[in-house]
Amino acid sequence: MKQVWAIVCVVGFVVFCTYGYTALAGLLGDRPTSIADFVLCLVGLGAGLIGWYRVMHYAPKMHGRRASARARLEEEFSDSTS
């Protein structure tokens, strides 16, 4: 299930960036823009954020594991170089 939410996250942010750029180009340039650009931009943002939230929900909790693992690796490295 985690992979499905990751795909939803990526596709949502791609849609957000694509239609956001199109809407912004329409506002700042000579190109006419439609309300569909803004709607799709917001839908993409919503899907990206929901997908990101769900991926973070399924991700393992670190609770200081990363810091202790880094300290252990640095200690092993310093032992191997001396």
List the helices and strands and how they pair.
Elements: H1 2-28, H2 35-58, H3 65-81
What are the defining features of this structure?
82 residues; mainly alpha; elongated
Number of helices: 3
| Helix/strand class | mainly alpha
Order of SSEs: HHH
The rounded distance between the terminal residues' Cα atoms is 46 Å
pLDDT < 50 runs, ≥5 residues: none
Q: What's the shape?
A: elongated
Helix content: over 70%
Strand content: under 5%
Number of domains: 1
- Average per-residue pLDDT, rounded, comes to 87
CA radius of gyration is 21 Å
Largest sheet: number of strands, sense, barrel closure = none
Beta strand count:
0
Oligomer: single chain
Kindly describe this structure:
- Helices cover 83% and strands 0% of the residues.
- It is built from 3 helices and no strands.
- The longest helix is centred in the first third of the chain and has 27 residues.
- It has one domain.
- By secondary structure, it is mostly helical.
- The chain is elongated, with a radius of gyration of 21 Å.
Short description:
This protein is mostly helical and about 80 residues long.
